[in-house]
What we know:
Blueprint: H1 3-14, H2 19-26, H3 30-38, H4 45-54, H5 59-64, H6 78-111, H7 117-143, H8 153-175, H9 183-195, H10 198-216
Amino acid sequence: MNAVGKNLxxxxxxxxxxxxxxxxxxxxxxxxxxxxxxxxxxPDIETLTDLAEALHADVRxxxxxxxxxxxxxxxxxxxxxxxxxxxxxxFLVWIALELTLVPYLVEQRLRKxxxxxxxxxxxxxxxxxxxxxxxxxxxxxxxxxxxxxLRSGRARRTLVILSLLILAHYVLWGAVPLLGNTLYPLxxxxxxxxxNWSLVRNGSLFLAGCMxxxxxxx
Length: 218
């Protein structure tokens, strides 16, 4: 039995069709179907197309087998479009807040030397959501054209755990100034130094968003 004949038999059995039923769909004899499956004769290109249509399969499955045939990736899937649009809306909201709320918070901080907690609250809410959404947005757009899903369940779980650890670390770091007036002035200079590393901080959130997307995208 040649490869095409073997694949034809597997696909026919998958479709739960007998040789007689398949022959009737193709308007050929049962002996013709049997000859194709045993390799005595070879179906021509036109017949291969008819066979694939009758079996609700792809021609490549007849040539390479049901398991080996690569299925075409469905582009512009709705879930990726919705995800990209939602992240885009978050970005627009962030721009509006940067133009309106942030200047006000900066002005209030300059008026009172130790009044930094509004900036930190902003950082662990809006900024966290923004940069994480940006990390989700990039793979969402890529997924509109290509398949970047991870096949390993262990790898996906690892990425989800790592992303949650990054987000938790960021939230805890931003929440420390709210612990009390005694501790906060002692750590003020240290926090101001950390604020200068915004690229590292925001980059880690972006990375967490990418890992979260890859970990949850099955």
